[in-house]
Structures are given as C-alpha cells and as structure tokens.
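Supplementary Methods S3. Input chains for the assembly prediction are listed below.
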Amino acid sequence: MMRKFAFPAVVLLAGVLLAVAPLFLDSGTLRLGAEILLVFAMAQMWNLLAGYAGLLSLGHAAFIGIGGYALYAAANNFNVPIYGGIVIAFLVAGGIAAIVAPLLFRLNDAYFAIGTWVFAEIVHVLVTKSDWLNGPSGLPLLAIRSMNMAEFPSITFWCAAALGVGTMLAAWGIMRSRLGLALVAVRDNPVAAASAGVDVWRSRFIAFVLSGAVCGAAGGAYFMSALFIDPNAAFDVNWTVILLFIVIVGGIGTLSGPVIGTAIYFALREMLLDQQGWFLVLMGGVAVLTALLAPRGIAGRGLLPASWQRRLLGAFRPAAAGAGRSVAPDAGNP
Amino acid sequence: MPLLEVDGLNAFYGDLQALHEISFTVDEGEVIAIIGANGAGKTTLMRSIAGLIRSRAGRVMFGGADITGLRADRVARLGIASVPEGRCLYPSLTVEENLAMGTAARRDGPWTLPAVYDLFPILREFRRRPATALSGGQQQMVAIGRALMGNPRLLLCDELSLGLAPKIVGEIYACFDRIRQSGLAILLVEQDVTRALQVASTVHCFLKGRISLSGAGSTLGIDAISHAYFGG
Amino acid sequence: MDWVPTIINGLLIGGLYGLLGLGLALVFGIMRIANLAHGEVIVMSAFLGLFLNQWLGINPLLLLPVIALVFFGIGYALQVGLLNRLLGKGPLPPLLVTFGLSTMLRNLMGQGFGADIHRIDSGSLPFISLHVAGFSIGVLPLITLAISTACFVALALVIGRTGFGRIVRATADDFHVVQMQGVNYRHIYGLVMGLALALTAVAGVLLGMRSTFTPYSGVEHLLLAFEVVVIGGLGSLWGPLIAGFAIGVVHLVGLRLDPSSGLLYPDLLFFLVLLIRPQGLAGLRRA
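Predicted structure tokens for the full assembly:
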C-alpha cells in the first residue's frame, strides 16, 4: 500500500517545495523556473500522446499557440483576469482538439504525424492573417497594466508549478486507470485491443484532447509569463523539436522520462545559450541517433541506463513497455 | 556428390529451438518429401535452406558450396527456387509479370515463358489478369512457374496442396515428371502423406524439429509413419 | 474572362507542385517511409542549383541532369546507409530519423548560409512570354510544366513497362518473397529512394528559379508536398499530378482573392478532401 502511493507522495512533496520556492528565489530565477515547469508539463502531455497512445504529433505547437492566443484574447479583449485565462486556454485548446481529431484520425501513422503539422500551419496562417489578433506584429499583454506586478513572478511560478505537478500526477493516475491500460493496448496492437472490447477511437480521442488542452493551458501560462505573443513564436516548429528531444532523451512512454529529458534540455540550453542554431542541430542529431540505436523501436528506453531511471523515480514504468517486441514469424507453423 | 546436403542444421526462433541436428541429402533429379504435423519444423527447414532464417549451427551445402548463412537473394541466384506456402503471388502484377519475376535470378536454362505456358496452358489465357484474380489451383501454377523461370537446380515446394481440391492437386503433381526431366531436384513439404509417399523417392518425417523417420516411399508402413508423425 | 489567366497559371505551376509531391509519394508507396526531410531536400537542391549557376554561369535548366544525378546518389546512400537499418521496426523510427535529419539540415544550412533569401538566376527566361489565343503565358512556367509532366511520364513508363519497374512493384508488394527470386530488396529500396530524391531535386531547382527560398523554406515545401500526396491519393502515380493541378489553381485563385493567405486555401482543400474523400482524388487506398 505504501509502495503504491510512494510516487504521488514524492510528487506532492516536490509540489510543496515548489510552493515555497518563491520565498527564496528572485524573479529572474522564478521566470526560468516557470518556463522549465511549463515545458515539462507540455512534454509530459506530448509523451502521453506519443508514448502511451502511440500518436506522434508533429503539430503540437498548434495547441501551445492556441492556448497562448486564447489567454491574450480573453485578457485583452474580454477583461478576463489573466490567471483565469489559463482555464480559458485549456478549454479553447481542448475544444479545437476535439473538433480536429476526427479529421486527423482518418490518417494513419506517418500521415497522421504530418497531418498534425499541416493543421499547425493552418492555424499559424490564420492567426497571422487575423486583424483581431494583430497579425504578424504580435500582441502585448495589455492586462498587466492594471495589475500588481510585484506578485506576478510568484503567481506565474505557482501556476506553472501547479501545471507541472498536476500533469505528473495526472499521468500517474491515467496509467493506473482503465484509460491508461486501453491506451497502451491500442498502441501495441489496435486490432487485438479492439477485439478485447477497447474503444480504440475513443481512447485515442480522449488522449488527444487532453494532451491538446493541457498544452494549451501551459502555452497560455508560458506566453503570459513572456508578456508578449506573436505567431512565429507561438507556432514555431521548434516546439516540436524541443518536445521530441525531451521525450526521446528521457524515454518515450515512461513517467520519469520527461523529468530527465526536461532537465537535460534546459541544462544544455543554458550551456549553448549563444549557439542556439547548433543546439538545434544537436537535438536533431539526438533524434536520429536514438531512433537508430534503440534496438527494437523506441519504447520505454531513453539514453540513460534503465538503472538510473529506476533510482531517480523508482521504476514507475508501464507494464507494456516492450512495445517494440517483434512477433515470432510463423510461430504456429514452422 | 549430392546436390543438396543438410548437415547438423539447428535453427531458432528467438530462444525457441525449431530444428535439432537435421541431416539429409537430395541428389540431382530426386524428389524428396518432408512430412509432419503442424509445428514440426517443416517450413522452418525450407526457410533455412532458402536463406530466410539464420541457422545457429550446422551446414547447408549446395552443389558442393557452403551456402550456410548466405542471404536469401544470393541463395536464389545460386539456383534454389522457392514455391512458398500460401503461394505469395504479387497482387500488383499480372500473371505474366509474376512469372517474369522469376527471371530476376538471372539464370539461363530451358524454363522460359513459352515453356511455362506449355506446362500450364491455362495460364496463357490469363496472362494479363492480376495474378490474385485466379483460382487457388491456377495461382499455385503461377507460383510454380515463377520459381521455374529462375531455372533453378533445386525447387523447394511448401504445402502445394494446401487449400486445393484433390483433382487440382493431382494435375499439379502430374507435372512433376516434366519438371524433373529438365534436370531439377525437388524438395517438398506436404501435408497429404499419401501424396508424398506416391511422388517422392525418399520421405523424411519431422517431429518436434527432428527427423523421426526416413525411408523410401514404397517401403514405409502406415504404423511406422503414424508413430513417427505423432510421436508417443 | 479575367480568371482564365489565373487558372492557366495555376495549372502551369500545378505541374511543379505535382512533381514536388511525386518523390514523397513514390517512397511512401514502395517502402512505407514518410521522408520528413523532403522539404530540406528541395531547399538543398535549390542551393546546389544556385551555387553551380553562380560558379559555372550555366543556365540552371541545363544543370538539372547533374543535380538529379547528385541527389540520386544522396538518396541511395541515405536509404542503404541509414533508413534500411530501420526496416521492420514499425512506423515510428523512420519518422524520428527523418524528422531529426530535417532539423539538422535546416539548421546546418541556416548556420552555413544565413537567413538571406535567394533565387536561382535563370537569365531572361522569367521575362519571356508567349502569346497564345489572346493570353500571355510565361515561357518559364511552360517549360516547368513540360519538365514536370515529362518526369511523370518517364516514371510511369519505368515503373509500368520495364523489368526494373516490375521488380520495384513486386518488392513493394512483398519484400520478403521477392528475395526468393534473387532480388536484393535493400538495393531496390536504395534505387527507389535515389529516384525519388532525383525527382525532388529537379522540382527543387525549378522551384528555386521561380520563387525565393531560405534555409528555413523546407517546412512549407514538405507540407505542400504532403498535401499533394494525400489529395492525390495513394496507390496511383498520377494522383500527385492531378492533385498538383487542383492545388495550383486553388492556390493562385486564393491568392488573387486574398493576397496574404499564403498556403491557406490549399491547406483547407486538404482538410476538405480528408473530410469527404479520404482516399484522395485518384486514390485506391486510404492514407
């Protein structure tokens, strides 16, 4: 019993630590901390989709950007308090994900992946053309003019922490739920899952919408913290590169993966601060190498040895981590 | 010198050992049959000889050369052609194109397109149809013709009779003589024990990856075969 | 009618759009690999065309065969050296590898060539027009359409009528069984990828003569090529050409109605096709 809840206990402890952090950290560090927590939350959600549901989304920037713009529109145009805007971002992004999922689900595998990318580009173009959202020039967060800015870094940090901790717990919870089992079954073998009574479409749909909604919320919080949003930053293809890197390095389909991956990403980013072009080359190279070296597909394996992952957060990997195991040829009729 | 010599062959699927120390030979112009229950290792044997499965120990010698571990396409070009279980014709290709695929092995010999049409006249009628639009028996003819077009020295036939009416199977097996006369040896896997005994000079019975019985088709008794087939 | 020139021009560029998608369709149809670095191949071939034209002073149209050959080699090496290792491991690894490659190439080009915009100089060609039936048609777009169509015809003949094409089709059907006839499918895959990149490179150079490009243009080219493939439908080599024409017309008509829309209308056409006819215009199989 104790063992079973050891993981959420650890996460909640981390949450408590994060809650008191603003008392000790300056605003610059808090901003970076918020960014780290938000990217972590996005990675956790992207991982949910790719690692557990087996859906590779190359257009998740769409939801991040939609969330950002939803918050700005709500705050600037409708005078919604900006922290409430995060909820709006969640709902708008989730809603759009729900609308577009039926279309995208008509595509398989690779074509689904690129399809999400096309979708992201459509949103990008629409926003760039939109006068209401001020097109290519971007939007400043006007609502801050009427706010107490002293508290802003702390509250933003808490929002980010809530999202970070929340997604961690949600991922843990989902994996123990029927939805989680259904997702893994669908990822490994959709036909078998369907014949066992799993509603393949519905499981994927829920995962996709949830992932989009939370990324929307995180995107809203991210751009809220940045005090400015423009289409190129909101819908940058490099969001995908970053999330892909984090999840691959940390280990697709694991709970601890995004933690490790996010840490490594930000460590490298700070080290290569004025070499961002080369950093992107490096991240691309990591994707190539990992796909090549991971022996049977990329399931439950990061670049770190499994023993490290276990030690860090205690072997909370889903049971069906052997997604890449091949079926013995003609085992029934040698 | 035998055309094909299998010596102490061991094959695995992962950790599961499917073949244990298999040894036998096939001489030029001979017809050898492998019988046995499902899962006994018959298709594994064919795949190992053809180069589709790596064997971990043992040797396969063909025409005096060691072909163990050779890649499947190299084995085919050396003169071993396969008629795989289930026919495996190319759905995007017509009958004639399927047959023509046999020439990819780049070997000269008596088996040309006209010769195959001579052997199986019905195929000439359907030459431009998609191969998978034909009946089961006709598809089997295409599969055999495709293998013959490679002018092999050894023909591997896996379960020719599977899913076919006995009359059709008879027609197909009736061609064996002509095939042998062109200089080929045939190694076949057959579910139909009676058919196997009729057509082959030597029959090997497989049981759980080992040869449980070998002998000339005419001299093997029903009891011996039964025992060797099912074990116990 | 004022719209006729727009539609004609849409058809003219449509041929090029079709060619842009052809390489992607070929590789996916034969090997089930989606090359996410496709856009970067287009940009790289444009850069090669740019440099060769600047160094040698030869008209880029005459450089096409050389550039095609270079990218044939690159394609073969990519397939045999890298992508063949991922066979049998599912759909994810090739996506990751090609996505990673696209990121690397895009940013390497950015580091090496900067963010300047370029166009390949084709002399006076862009300014010459023919006058046909009262309409003015540019010579360069006409040549582009001719070359694109010729590529389609050539590929269809190779795949449909030659022994090599027969082997390719058989390999696409069943790469295990094809070995039994002495075909080394890894080599065939290499040749197909080489062919695909060669075709793509031709399209890339033609595109580079027609519009500007930067190291970061690859993304929009990939998306356009992908739309061409999906709208055209898989399982048919002519699908991309038909789709190209449709997209070309929609794109130019859309730009005329809405000058800042970029690729929005083709994007919407893509989603429309997905909604009402997922197998594409000429399609035999769903994407």
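The radius of gyration of chain A is 20 Å. Residues 237-317 of chain A form one domain.
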